[in-house]
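User: I'm putting together notes for a lab meeting next week and I want to include a structural view of one of the chains we've been expressing. I don't have a solved structure, so I'd like a prediction I can at least talk through. The sequence is below, exactly as it appears in our construct file.
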Amino acid sequence: MLEQRYRWKNKHLRMHVSILDGKASPTILLKNALYLNQTFRKWLRANIWIYEDRIIYVGENLPTQLDNCEIIDCTNEILVPGYIEPHAHPFQLYNPLTLAAYASQFGTTTLINDNMALILHLNKTKAFSLLKDLRSIPTTMFWWSRFDPQTEILNEEEIFSHSNVKAWLEHDAVLQGGELTGWPKLLDGDDMMLHWIQEAKRMRKQIEGHFPGASEKTLAKMMLLGADCDHEAMTGEEVYNRLMQGYMVSLRHSSIRPDLPNILDDMKRMGIDAYDRLMLNTDGASSTFYEQGVTDTTIRIAIEKGVPVIDAYNMATVNIARYYKIEHLHGTIATGRVANINFLTSIEDPTPKSVLVKGKWVKKDGTPIVNAYPPITWDEYGLKPLEVDWDLTIDDLQFSMPFGIKMENAVITKPYSISIDASGDELSSNHDECYFTLMDRNGKWRINTLLKGFANNLSALASSYSNTGDIILIGKNKQDMLQAFNRMKELGGGIVMVENSQVVCELPLTLHGIMSNVPIEELICQEKQLLIELRERGYRFSDPIYSLAFFSATHLPYIRITPQGMYDVMNKTVLFPSIMR
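Assistant: Thanks for the context. Below is the predicted structure for the 581-residue chain, given as structure tokens.
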């Protein structure tokens, strides 16, 4: 639980009132600012008083006390609230701290985060300790509570026990349950999941769906069972269907689904011009996708596609805050709110030149503030370099499956019949089939098959990054695969490519083998190099990071490689169980 139930103690509230009475001074005064007033849906001029992390007053008056107050003339500034990312996956190679620091430079000051990596890899004590300590960084961090692991793991009943999920739901920093990647189980009668939804509702918390391609009838059923929002609309028709069934609709623009421009075109064609039930998200994009911006990019696309400017900003601020019942703190520039403010050079350009987060500058006049986000000692929470105390041998790389996995795109995989001889130690580069192994990170089990369509000339890749945190091996040369594994082991986790016994690319992931501890700017360079090397060897899809993450993700069709074994998603059966070592 959060140690402090209320954001401001009584003594702080009395201090805030005393500033209005002229008995104390604000810490920052923003004079004559043109700001977005979402109540009147207008751009208004006002003086904005800030004391530490709170907006004390917005209006015509000026404070009588100005001792040690930073005064900013905002005559030529345009102010909007800090942006809110409602659907962050803060473990896509980056980590919650580096994502927060990077996103703040583009004006995203609040993140609502997936807890998947925390519930899978940390116990409650460690996870909740991390949530508590993340309160001290400038960015505001909220969380979800997952109800299912998004794959078939061996100890699901233990990790997603009633007591564990309920503890997460009860946490003050958790705003919603979901996302409901396991919704087919719910429709099939999973009453425990339904009970958790009921508990979330009792606590006045929201339920995030995950309903790609869902029919109108399915959407209606899920609304009846408790879903409140869905981020999987890919066309204007799907937006319309969700709005008709009463959903809040989160419009996505992400590395794996850069759909927003087409969705907005569709909506315009269909005459959808009401935006209060819409919000914008980037759905855990890979770091390279964020190179040009985060939430600000989605606002810019909306403006360029003809969405009224105020609605475009509202979809990234107050609409989200109202939906999550945090409007008393976030999403507007108004008295009593947290002082998260973006300073723009023009109304049509949502990328800020200066950013205030909790009343502190993290960016000023285009320059990042050094050490605005101090480092975290990750090992205190159990997020240390991966310790692999077992050895991989050539005997672990035996491939005799009758069928393998074929990639249809970056994340969709289907079964195919194997016709080549895979009994040797090396495969030909004349085809696009590779050896493919998922290994338990503790060395207890493995599952081996062939992967078609990933690359045609990849000697070896080892990755400790996956949906479950288990180890992926892909390649055509078994000796190089062993070497890539050993190098990944030396790094304490990461993604390693080996060719002709030489490391050609490596991306260290020293936080439990699933996250990098370098700034996102540096991670972008590493990820770009990985993509270059993979493309040279035949990888032809958009996002290899999502490919690695979703090989075991059973919320996607059709066949997956999971800790339980080769899994048929449509029939919900294990086709070939994993092999114990």
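A couple of points you could mention at the meeting. DSSP finds 17 helices and 29 strands in the chain. The mean pLDDT is 96.

User: Perfect, that's what I needed.
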